[in-house]
Amino acid sequence: MSTLLMICVFSFVMSISPGPVNMITLSTGMNHGEKQAMPFVLGATLGFSLLLLVIGLGLGTFIEQFSFLLDTLCILGSLFIIYLGFKLMTSSGQLTFEKVARPSFNEGFLLQWLNPKAWIACLAGVSVFKLSPNDPLLYVFILLYFCICYLSIMSWAVAGSRLSFYVKSHKLINIFNQILGGGLMLVAVYLAYSQMI
């Protein structure tokens, strides 16, 4: 299997799998529609790509030398994800744009920098493919990951938008948001716990 194909498979699996960003994107697509979710999707994709670049340029080596930094980031990131999960759980379930907060580009961008899953994906990718700042493959990896990540996150927005067609009741949307918000909080607790053991 060629390295480029392995990079594409790695990027797809890491991007499409459920995690904090994808859960929020699914809920945003459902509550606001896929078009309204696109700023968050773009912010999350750019945030992740920049994180991948910074780790590829050497921050990964620095983090590995001072493992307590990753532990601290994991705890802070998990707290931020719990906050977002709480916001989602307590949203009104209204489909009207003015009444429900829509995650922004900035929140998508910031979430990737505080998302333990994103850090693990970046560190693993750079390590597995033995990428360094002098290796042109690093920049190919970032470009491919950007495209795959964007399409993967966007697919969650589309799925949420399609799901809203079937869930017309505000009560059902409220239940859906509570389940996703609770799931998001559980994911954050799990990520923090797994980093500490």
Shape: globular
Into how many domains do the coordinates divide?
A: 1
Percent of sequence in beta strands: under 5%
Largest sheet: none
**Mean model confidence by pLDDT:** 82
Cα radius of gyration in angstroms: 17 Å
Separation, N- and C-terminal Cα atoms: 34 Å
Specify the number of helices: 8
Regions with little confidence, pLDDT below 50 for 5+ residues: 95-99
What does this structure look like?
83% of the residues lie in helices and 0% in strands. The relative contact order is 0.24. It is mainly α. The model is unreliable at 95-99 (pLDDT under 50). The longest helix has 32 residues, at 34-65. It has 8 helices and no strands. Pfam families: LysE (PF01810).
Condensed summary:
It contains 8 helices and no strands. 83% of the residues lie in helices and 0% in strands.
Task: Give structural attributes.
single chain; 197 residues; mainly alpha; 83% helix
Topology:
Blueprint: H1 3-16, H2 20-32, H3 34-65, H4 67-89, H5 105-114, H6 116-128, H7 136-166, H8 170-196
Helix pairs in contact: 1-7, 2-3, 2-7, 2-8, 3-5, 3-6, 3-7, 4-8
